[in-house]
Amino acid sequence: MELCETSKDYELLTQKIYRAILESEGVENIDVQHDVKIKGKSGVEHQIDVFWEYRYAGVSHKILIECKYYSKPVSLIHARNMLGLLNDIPNSQGLIVTTQGFQSGVIDFCGHYEINLKRIRTPQGTDWDGYIQIINVNGELYQNQYLDMKLAFDGKDYDTKKYFDKHGSQISFNVYDSSIEEDGVVSFIGKWLDSKIVANLVELNTPKKEVISPENAFVVLPTQERLKIKKFTVLWELSRQELSISVNAIDFVQAVLEDFRSGDIEYTLNKEHNK
């Protein structure tokens, strides 16, 4: 799968990962910015893809992050550019992030000047070596199926009588678009019926009729009008469904932050399900 559509998206993803890391570690003065202009001691203004500044154990740290969303390994010129930034911006550390990797000269150069090399990439199956990646669940689901419903309303209730006086005795509404309120608790009709009907496995796939006469329950219409229930007649049956569910951990991970030299995974960014 494609990690990002553009280089800017990759920079924003990097910002998001390091912001999440800082928040999880509880450091002070978190400041992870994207596309920052910083003036060096030479007076020259430098563009930084991601600027990461924080305070930990009383010490201020500034990290200059350059993001290279490339389809091939990063070349030495980018490492030299980073060293120039570090020389011109005091009290800073350098970090180069890419998707594919780095040429051998870059690794040696950055190792000598203590420039960190990271990879932010898509997750892969080998990330779960030694761990459980896929869980298969097989089982059976038993649930009540409601085949038909009929409602009788309490005409002695003031608001209910007022509603019928206005709309007539023949009204039409979708019972499935409405909820039921009983003793101040509002729930979906199916959930309310589940609380009233006790099923038994011997009744599997056998239609049955149940008559419920609640003391203080109301149908809540989409208009928020409340109609008091006198009698609720429902035709229902207990059904069984075979379940087979497979959960793959890789489907929940958006990106992996990996130290390029050691190959260690330092952070996994979960997908936001909207998030």
The largest sheet is: 7 strands, mixed
| Rg from alpha-carbon coordinates | 31 Å
How are the strands ordered across the major sheet? 1-2-3-4-5-12-13
Uncertain parts = none
- Give the overall form: elongated
What is the terminal-to-terminal distance?
A: 18 Å
Bin the strand percentage.
Answer: 35-45%
Number of domains: 2
- Label the structural class: alpha+beta
At the fold tier of CATH, the topology name of the largest domain is: Trna Endonuclease, Chain: A, domain 1
Mean pLDDT: 89
Q: What is the N-to-C succession of helices and strands?
A: HEEEHEHEEHEEHEEEEE
Figure out the total of helices: 5
CATH architecture of the largest domain: 3-Layer(aba) Sandwich
Helical percent range?
A: 10-25%
Got a strand count?
13
CATH secondary-structure class of the largest domain: Alpha Beta
